[in-house]
């Protein structure tokens, strides 16, 4: 594997109760990226994505649309520290 990066995204809109995290996990598996997704108490979804830059960018692009039935308003992206995740997980709500 080449260069590995990690990004954190906060996704707002109609993103809870629509299968967003589960669909994100499926898309992450398809793209070969690791990380996690979790609901936040404010109604947003927080996602961290780790992998090769092109794959991470494709995952961030997917987050900007989300799965059918969702309605993404905004996606705020920031750099995060690479931590060596080897799969994509669903985490508990915070």
**What are the secondary-structure elements, in order, as H or E?**
EHEEHEE
Query: Which shape, going by the Cα principal axes?
Result: globular
Mean pLDDT comes to 96
Poorly predicted parts = none
Helical content class: 10-25%
| Number of H- or I-type helical stretches | 2
- Main sheet makeup: 5 strands, mixed
The secondary-structure class comes to: alpha+beta
Q: Quote the beta fraction.
A: 35-45%
What's a concise summary of this model?
By secondary structure, the protein is an alpha+beta fold. It contains two helices and five strands; from the N terminus they run E-H-E-E-H-E-E. The radius of gyration is 12 Å and the shape is globular.
Describe the SSE topology.
Elements: E1 5-14, H1 20-31, E2 34-39, E3 45-51, H2 53-63, E4 71-80, E5 88-90
Parallel strand pairs: 2-5
Antiparallel strand pairs: 1-3, 1-4, 2-3
Helix pairs in contact: 1-2
Please provide a written account of the structure:
With 94 residues, the protein is an alpha+beta fold. The chain has two helices and five strands, in the order βαββαββ. The chain has a five-stranded mixed beta sheet with strand order 4-1-3-2-5, with helices on one face. α1 packs antiparallel against α2. The longest helix has 12 residues, at 20-31. The protein is globular and about 35 Å long. The model has no long low-confidence stretch (mean pLDDT 96). This is Acylphosphatase. Keywords: Hydrolase. Pfam families: Acylphosphatase (PF00708).
């Amino acid at each position: 594997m080449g260069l590995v990066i990690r990004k954190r995204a906060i996704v707002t809109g109609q993103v809870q109760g629509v299968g967003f995290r589960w669909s994100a996990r499926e898309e992450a598996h398809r793209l070969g990226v690791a990380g996690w997704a979790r609901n936040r108490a404010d109604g947003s979804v927080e996602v961290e994505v780790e992998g090769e830059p092109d794959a991470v960018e494709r995952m961030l692009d997917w987050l900007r649309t989300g799965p059918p039935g969702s309605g993404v308003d905004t996606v705020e992206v920031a750099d995060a520290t690479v931590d060596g995740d080897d799969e994509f997980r669903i985490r508990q709500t915070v």
